[in-house]
Design a protein that fits this description.
Blueprint lengths: L10 H14 L16 E5 L3 E6 L2 E6 H6 L7 E2 L4 E2 L14 E5 L2 E5 L5 E5 H7 L1 H5 L11 H7 L4 E2 H6 L1 H14 L1 E5 L5 H9 L4 E2 L7 E3 L15 E4 L11 E10 L5 E5 H11 L1 H9 L2 E8 L4 E8 L2 E3 L6 E4 L14 H18 L6 E3 L6 E5 L3 E5 L5 E9 L1 H10 L5
Parallel strand pairs: 9-10
Antiparallel strand pairs: 1-2, 2-3, 4-5, 6-7, 7-8, 10-21, 11-23, 12-23, 13-22, 14-21, 14-23, 15-20, 15-22, 16-17, 18-19
Fe (ii) ion binds next to loops.
């Protein structure tokens, strides 16, 4: 079931992996060192690295890495969280003379007499093995039923603007689901701007800071029409697509125009389960997206290059989907046989994205502001009649996630 928090490692699994590893690896060459506290640690110095067993996990720590990550005052400024040490001056063949574990810390004596001291939990959290087994950003993946059954509450304008706890809840929902709503916002561009600035900084683009559009074809983009729009991510033609999209429908006198939302990561994870080779191909083949606009008022030629799906190499966690069939440009960097396989993989992902049960349809009304993670959740709309005025903006992704981390959320 995908409606779980992806990437959470079961402690039992960790213990099983350690047991299996202990059975296949040779015994310690040095005497095991045990911490005096209840939390035991076993340290072994190999030629190539230090091996630390702690709390059921085995970690392999490179010696240069250990010296580079020394947290002593001369090596690291804990006030600014910046490195003082010149990494370029570390002997690449460095090894500690001796080591001991004391009161939850690992101590290393280096050949020049310097002593480094590391918290065991800090090492466990920051080792490759630790990072490999934990998600950067825990998420709840959803289809329409999962999202509706979760009954995720919307924030309310008054409280949202004045109460940090309301903002924290909003950010938690946003981080987990990739969408979040604020209700009862005054139906003006100014109030929409204010509500977005409560969350992050606005990312100014060729469309301006706050944009406000009707179906007047004022720009060379299908968005400025009354036509239906299939699911897509925005600004795939930027080298770094915009992180967050904000929509606020200020007025609609007519019919239709419902907004479509699809969790791209839910569909992509389905693809990964069913056809891992097709998923992997979509993470490897770089594709171009372009936006070319040539009018009296606007000249633009944007180009973004990157695969449809990107995963972190150490834990295979998906972190961005670029999917915009309108703006996908000429495929001219891939040999013909790979192109065929890419189209097969693209078709399988497209089929999953188009499953009706994955479609969440929302009617945006004046007062309801929608925030979308544009690196994850796709949007579209049905065609409409009448005058429909929509305003919104893009937000910088780094600042939204920074705000979430400021509240202690994992993001
Ligand atoms: Fe769009």
């Amino acid at each position: 079931m995908l409606c779980t928090i992806i990437g959470k490692l079961q402690p039992a699994l960790k213990r099983a992996q350690l047991l299996s590893s202990l059975q296949t690896n040779p015994p310690w060459r040095l005497m095991p060192i045990r911490a005096s506290s209840a939390q035991s640690a076993v340290v072994k110095l190999l030629d190539s690295c230090l091996v630390l067993d702690y709390e059921g996990s085995r970690m392999h720590l490179n010696y240069v890495w250990l010296r580079d990550h020394c947290r002593s005052e001369s090596s690291y400024n804990s006030q600014t969280n910046q490195r003082n040490l010149d990494t370029g001056r570390i002997d690449l063949n460095i090894r500690p003379h001796d080591t001991k574990v004391e009161d939850g810390y690992l101590l290393l004596n280096w050949p020049d007499g310097h002593v480094s001291k590391y918290g065991l939990q800090w090492l466990a959290d920051n080792s490759y093995e630790g990072q490999k087994q934990s998600p950067v950003q825990p998420r709840i993946l959803w289809n329409s039923d999962i999202y509706k059954n979760a009954n995720v509450p919307s924030a309310k304008w008054d409280k949202f603007m004045s109460c940090d706890d309301e903002l924290k809840k909003f950010l938690q929902n946003y981080v987990l689901y990739g969408i979040a709503f604020v209700d009862d916002v005054p139906a003006t561009v100014e109030a929409t701007e204010a509500v977005t600035q409560r969350v992050s900084l606005i990312r100014e683009t060729t469309y301006g800071k706050m944009w406000c559009f009707t179906s007047d074809f004022s720009r060379g983009d299908t968005a400025y029409s009354q036509l239906a729009l299939d699911r897509h991510t925005d600004t795939s033609y930027f080298q770094e697509p915009c992180g967050i999209q904000v929509f606020h429908c200020l007025k609609h006198e007519g019919t239709g125009g419902k907004t479509l939302l699809v969790d791209g990561f839910y569909a992509a994870e389905k693809l990964r389960q069913r056809s891992p080779e097709n998923f992997e191909l979509l993470t490897r083949v770089p594709i171009k997206h372009e936006y070319i606009e040539n009018s009296d008022k606007h000249q633009n030629h944007m180009r973004g290059i990157g695969p449809l799906l990107e995963v972190y190499p150490w834990n295979k966690e998906l972190y961005i989907i670029r999917y915009n069939n309108y703006d996908r440009s000429v495929i001219n960097t891939v040999p013909h046989d790979v192109v065929q396989r890419w189209y097969v993989a693209h078709r399988e992902l497209t089929t999953e994205l188009r499953q009706p049960e994955n479609e969440l349809w929302v009617k945006l009304t004046p007062g309801k502001v929608l925030f979308i993670d544009n690196w994850r959740v796709m949007h579209g709309r049905e065609s409409f009649t009448g005058v429909r005025q929509l305003c919104g903006c893009y937000l910088t992704r780094d600042d939204v996630l920074s705000a979430a981390r400021g509240f202690g959320l994992q993001a």
